[in-house]
Design a protein that fits this description.
The chain is mainly α. It has helices at residues 2-12, 16-25, 29-42, 45-61, 69-86, 94-137. It folds into two domains: 1-43, no CATH class; 46-121, no CATH class. Keywords: Membrane, Transmembrane, Transmembrane helix, Transport.
């Protein structure tokens, strides 16, 4: 959360990014003006990188790294898709690149969260399937517990 606070203070507050670019770094005013919007977009990246890193750590701790393999592929395909789609909009240059990068990170974070969610509910899904197979293998149908009448 501290990374977001620093990014917010430097890039989203009016005039702060321009001051840093122009005065501290020494860029000319035209280049500093062009750099402000990509930096504002980039300041949001930490909001999706943090949860992605947390859930990636959970998968690594559980030694389920095979579920992380497709996430990089999803990010790469997302980048290509977003670049081709967003190029038809008014975005160009650094704005287009950083927006596509942000959307690729968001897509990868969604995939990692979905993998953790799948692993959490996988035992419950497998146990339901196992019980239904066992009931079917005995050849008897499961009888309801309520509204049962005893036969003479």
């Amino acid at each position: 959360m501290s990374a977001f606070t620093i990014n917010f203070l430097l890039y989203i507050m009016p005039g702060a990014a321009y001051f840093v670019m122009n005065t501290l770094i020494g860029l000319n005013s035209e280049l500093a003006e062009l750099s402000v919007l990509p930096l504002r977009i980039y300041s949001i990246v930490c909001l999706c990188i943090g949860p992605r890193a947390y859930f990636t750590g959970i998968l690594i701790m559980k030694k389920k790294t095979m579920y992380l393999t497709p996430s990089a592929l999803f990010r790469f395909l997302g980048l290509i898709l977003f670049l081709s789609t967003l190029s038809n909009t008014r975005l160009s240059g650094a704005n287009l690149g950083i927006t596509s990068l942000l959307l690729g990170f968001v897509l990868e974070a969604i995939f990692v969260v979905a993998a953790v969610t799948f692993l959490r509910y996988k035992p419950k899904l497998c146990s339901r399937t196992k019980h239904s197979v066992e009931d079917d293998s005995t050849g008897t149908e499961a009888m309801p517990l309520s509204n049962t009448k005893s036969q003479p």
